[in-house]
Amino acid sequence: MKSSFFLLVVCLGALAVCNAGDLRKHFYKKSCLLAEDIVKNITQRRVAANSALPAKLLRLHFHDCFVRGCDASVLLNSTANNTAEKDAIPNLSLAGSDVIDEIKTHLEKTCPGVVSCADIVALSARDSVSFQFNRSMWDVLTGRRDGNVSRASEALANIPSPFSNFTTLKQNFANKGLNVHDLVVLSGAHTIGVGHCNLFSRRLYNFTGKGDTDPSLNSTYAAFLKTKCKSLSDTTTTVEMDPQSSLSFDSNYYVILKQNKGLFQSDAALLKNKGAAKTVDELTSLTDFFTEFSQSMKRMGAIGVLTGSSGEIRKKCSNVNSS
Q1: Helices 117-130 & 97-110, crossing angle to 10 degrees?
Q2: Buried/exposed code over 126-136 (b: 16+ C-beta within 10 A; e: otherwise)
Q3: Helices then strands (H, E): number in the chain?
Q4: Is the pLDDT of residue 1 over 60?
Q5: In Å, how far are 56, 72, 162, 195, 214 from 200, measured between CA atoms?
Q6: Are residues 181 and 216 both part of a single domain?
Q7: What CATH number is attached to the domain comprising 185?
Q8: What confidence tier does 100 reach under pLDDT thresholds 50, 70, 90?
Q9: Catalytic residue among 61, 63, 181, 190
Q10: What was the pLDDT predicted at 22?
Q11: Which of 142, 159, 176 is the last residue of a domain?
């Protein structure tokens, strides 16, 4: 009886893990045999022409899964009566939806009404990162269906903030059925991509409201960042999250983190907890990082998924199907 109760608690508290059983490898093998090949070919053709794309597609997947689960709700347009997730402040800088739309258009011609936008987002994130290595970097289980609700207020409430401390980050991830280990591992996605100055410039110019610099930030690195971000009001300039390595998916993020060169307050926060800091040490190993990232991505990709008869298969990723 105790074990049954424990399982129920786990399922209620971490719905993502329980729903994962409804996803499987090669879900479209019979219904759309070429689905995953089409996603991969278009994604990697686009990455070959734009090396910054993997960071964008990975971020799109992350932001989708943390709001209502991995249901492609982040792609829905706002309407006259509703402001959608994509128009929430944390999502205004998202990019890559044009790649998803191109893939969806192709799939609708090949297998109409079969492949979900949610699965395309998950597969393209994996395939974009994998392009660098010419091999698949993690398994993506498929079978997700698309949601038909998207609210900007939920994006603000659920997407982890770059200003967060460790306690807040830990709770953000726990709310999605992910633990501290997943938090540290998935933060490693910051090994590629850029960050806008306004998301970290307070650490440079006004950390405690007294015109000071965050003392936990490497002083040499802080001086460098000040040459890039010259004021608190700069909202357009971007800086590499992983200096000199922002286009290479590797474990260098953890190396620079130990040097107190994590760009965001949320990066630096990982060193504030003994267990998290120990995981940071372990993940400086490239092999360990790849292994752990693969597992955490599978867990994240199962957050709150819609399967079976839930949700729908959108004809167009930016709009719900008309009834």
Answers
A1: 120
A2: bbbbbbbeeee
A3: 15, 2
A4: no
A5: 19, 28, 8, 8, 10
A6: yes
A7: 1.10.420.10
A8: very high
A9: 63
A10: 87
A11: 159
User: Are the C-beta atoms of residues 145 and 307 closer than 8 Å to each other?
Assistant: yes
pLDDT tens profile 8-33: 333 334 444 445 568 999 999 999 99
Domain that holds residue 32: 14-159
| Whether residues 133 and 198 fall in one domain | no
Summarised one tens digit per residue, pLDDT across range 164-186 is 999 999 999 999 999 999 999 99
Q: What angle do CA 248, 252, 258 make, to 5 degrees?
A: 160
- 6 within a domain of the structure (yes/no): no
Token pair 């689960």 in the structure block, residue: 69
| 95 CB-contact burial (10 Å; exposed 0-12 / middle 13-18 / buried 19+) | middle
> Average model confidence (pLDDT) for the chain?
93
Same domain, 194 and 65: no
Q: Reply yes or no on whether the pLDDT at 2 is more than 50.
A: no
Q: Is residue 215 part of a domain?
A: yes
Residue 262: both structure tokens together:
């994590």
171 shares its domain with 281: yes
Residue type, 5: F
* 63 flagged as catalytic: yes
* pLDDT attached to residue 322: 86
Could you tell me if 242 and 154 lie in one domain?
Answer: no
Among 48, 97, 49, which Cα is nearest to 76's? 97
Predicted TM-score (pTM) of the model is: 0.92
From residue 43, how far is each of 96, 102, 225 by CA, in Å? 10, 9, 33
**Cα separation values, 267 from 181, 202, 262, 320, Å:** 14, 14, 5, 36
Would you say residue 85 lies in a domain?
A: yes
159: tokens are: 């997407």
Whole-number Å distance between alpha carbons of 50 and 192: 13
139: in domain: yes
Indicate which CATH number applies to the domain containing 130: 1.10.520.10
pLDDT in tens, 244-301: 889 999 999 999 999 999 999 999 999 999 999 999 999 999 999 999 999 999 999 9
How far, in Å, CA of 256 to CA of 204, rounded? 17
